[in-house]
Each structure stands twice: as structure tokens, then as C-alpha cells.
Amino acid sequence: MDRTRLHALLARESAEAERRNPRSRAAYADAGHLFGRVPMTWMNKTAGAFPRYLASARGARVTDVDGQRYIDFCLGDTGAMAGHSPAPVTEAVQRRFAELGGATAMLPTEDAEWVGAELTRRFGLARWSFSLTATDANRWAIRLARAVTGRPKILVNSYSYHGSVDESLIVVGPDGKGAPRPGNVGAPCDVTLTSRVAEFNDLDQLARELAHGDVAAVLMEPALTNIGIVLPEPGYLAGVRALTRQYGTLLVNDETHTFSAGPGGCTAAWGLEPDLLTIGKAIGGGIPAGAYGLSADLAERLLARADLDLVDMGGVGGTLAGNALSVAATRATLEHVLTDEAFAHMDRLSARFETGVRSAVQEHGLPWSVSRLGARTEYRFADPAPRTGTASEAAADPELEDFLHLYLANRGILLTPFHNMALMCPDTTEQDVDTHTAVFGAALLELAG
Ligand code: PMP
């Protein structure tokens, strides 16, 4: 990569973003009362000097306050995998909130059992409980796993992401031992007191860590999706299940992103048998919702424990969790939007996207790899594709990423700011994918000079 050329292109695209988006730029400059000038500090993770401000969004389209329109492959980093404001969810939300009311009445609705049954049909786990975010689903799953096993530690894969869960902010350090994830903000204690870590695709390391006998649960994505897509090698996931059973450790599959693999995520697609499963974001169709599922046996054992306060302040739950609005939105999303047919369409488009990107990369002889997990495709600046989170982290190239993101955004295409990820929703079209392929090809041509 010619860095001088890349810097010049990046400067050109930054200037173009300023020219195209004066109102977004001014709004950002005026946002002095916000911590970091944004509603949430991660919104500063954007290519260029300021974020584009949202005006409206529908299906696979976003319009910003400057009137620029985008094909949205970011889809809220999966929160909008159902498309923005899909009609069935809009109707369900309007009915629940405006007509019936009672979003926070602290009373159950009949929709919840429908959703529980549907989640069981899709993912296999027998009992379900709700949260508002995937982070909380993970937090509560971890607490339950500790309670039922009586063990203190949680094991995650290096450079995985499971939300702002204290236990998960651990990586494999240069000496091969667990170390705090770089940048961890205000850790409550040394993370190695609460956690163990292994590289994805490394069963030997996992076996060594589990052999200590102090791990309550392995919390993992069946494929890493937050450090590029890192796919499991043949036999790895079966090995994880065998080892967790051997050492009496529970297995929690976090399907928040890997839901892209199909209607029942990787768990159904690959016949996995986790003890617990967590999910968030997409299932609410744009309304905050999350859930965790557990096996019938685990649920019974937990409910039989008189010492666990599961109904008041014992540490599992939130006032708004399972609220009528979130549950109604989740039902509408699963019943009418993210259906089996929708996934088939999304998978087909994602394969088309993958082919387009791969051909362009090959045409330019770039040492990049492309990985796909159903409706989600991502390219990484390494070939062959990294097989661990740490290797994938090392393949990051922030300048190159910024250039590609800005180049695409200036031509009406949004990718997830955190990586080179493109997600399909039920409203994405072949034309959208082909537009991306053409613009991506043009970007590579510019890079080649
Ligand atoms: N789990 C996974 C796999 C995720 O990718 C994320 C967010 N990117 C989370 C959990 C946390 O989701 P949220 O921020 O909505 O709580």
C-alpha cells in the first residue's frame, strides 16, 4: 500500500465529506453539552472529522440531515438487520404504545409466551427471559452460570466482544497469558481474577484453561464477528462442547451478531447445543430488546434454589426488561420480518456481495480476505483470513479503513463504522449490492493509482 497516496486520498475524501455535509458538521460543532459531542461516545468512531446526522431511515435506506441518501449496509451494526422501521414492527409498536398503552406497566403480556415459543423453535433452548440489550442478557447469563456452578470465572475468546461486560474485557497478552483488553475503562478489579481467555480456534489453550476447574461458563460467539469475521475451523465448535462438558463448564452462545447465519443463528445452522444462549439488537426490529435462553434442566435447578433472589434485587433483571413494547416489537419482527424466507433472500444477496468484493480484491491482487456468515460479509486486510481474534486484530489498518468508509459514504453507501462489515436486510436489493461492488471497485482502482 502506497501510504503517501493513501493519505492524499483520505484528505481528499475528508474534504469532500465536509463539502457534502455542512449541516452535520455544524450540528457536531454545536453539540457542546454532550460528552464527546455525541449522544454516546462510540458515535465518535466515524471516518472523517464528524458523524453524519440522521434525518430518517426506512428499510435499507438512510437519509442524513444534509439530504444525502445512503444504501445502508451498516444497519445499526445489526440492530436494524430487520431493516429500518419495518411495517409490521411499526404497526405493532403503534398499537402497543398508542392504542393499548402500558409499555411500562410491570405486567406480563401474552406476546411474551409467543416469543418464547418462537425462540425455542429457532434456537432449541427451552426457557427464555428478556432484557433490553445483549450486554444485559450476557451479564445475567453469567450470573446464573456462576450461581448454578458455584465457580467464579468466565472464559471468553481473545478479542471477542460481548458488550460492556466486565468479565469479557480480557485478551491473550504477548506472553500468552490473560491480560486486560487495551483501553478498558475503569475496570472494577484485575480482570484475571474474574476471567480466563483462550484464542478462538485453539482447543489446546481452551483445555488448559478449563482444567483449572474454576470456569463457570464459556461465553462465546460461534464465529467471531467483532474483530472481522473469524470462522470456526472444522471440529472446533464440537471440541468446545466436548471440553466444556468434560470440565463441568456451561456453554453460552452469544448469537447477537451470528444471528445473521440464519433464522436460528449458528446454533440451528450448525446443530450446536449450548446450555445458555444470549441475543439482542436485531430481534426487536429497532426497539431495544434482548433475551437469554436456558435449558429446561438449568432453569429448574435455578428456580429450585431458595437462596437465589431471582424476583427482587438479587442482580438479575431490570425494570424495563420484558416490557410490553419491546416484547410486541420482538414478536412482530420474528413473526413477520426476520422470517425463514427473509433469511434466504439476505443470504443470497450476501453471497452476491461476497463475490463482488472478492473479484475486485483478486483483480487488484490485494492480500485481503473475505469472510461471510449468512447475511453478513466482511473483508480483512490479511490473506489467508486470520484464524484467531488476536491475529485478526493485528490485521487492522485504521487509515485504510477510514479511506474506504469515507469513499463509500461520499458515494451513498454506509458500512458499519467498527469494521468493514456489510449486512443485508429483507429490503436490500441486488441493485444495492451491485452499486456497492461498482463503488468498491472504483475505490480500489484509486488506491492502485
Ligand atoms: N454481544 C455481541 C456479540 C455484540 O456484537 C454486541 C454489540 N456489538 C453485544 C453483545 C452488546 O450489544 P449491546 O451493545 O446492544 O448491549
Automatic annotation (TrEMBL):
Keywords, in A-Z order: Aminotransferase, Pyridoxal phosphate, Transferase
InterPro entries listed in its UniProt record: Aminotrans_3 (IPR005814), PyrdxlP-dep_Trfase (IPR015424), PyrdxlP-dep_Trfase_major (IPR015421), PyrdxlP-dep_Trfase_small (IPR015422)
Highest taxon in the source lineage: Bacteria
Cofactor(s) of this protein: pyridoxal 5'-phosphate
Transmembrane segments: none
GO molecular function terms noted in the UniProt entry: pyridoxal phosphate binding; transaminase activity
Keyword Metal-binding recorded: no
Family per record: Belongs to the class-III pyridoxal-phosphate-dependent aminotransferase family.
NCBIfam families: PRK07046.1
Protein name according to UniProt: Aminotransferase
Record organism: Streptomyces fuscichromogenes
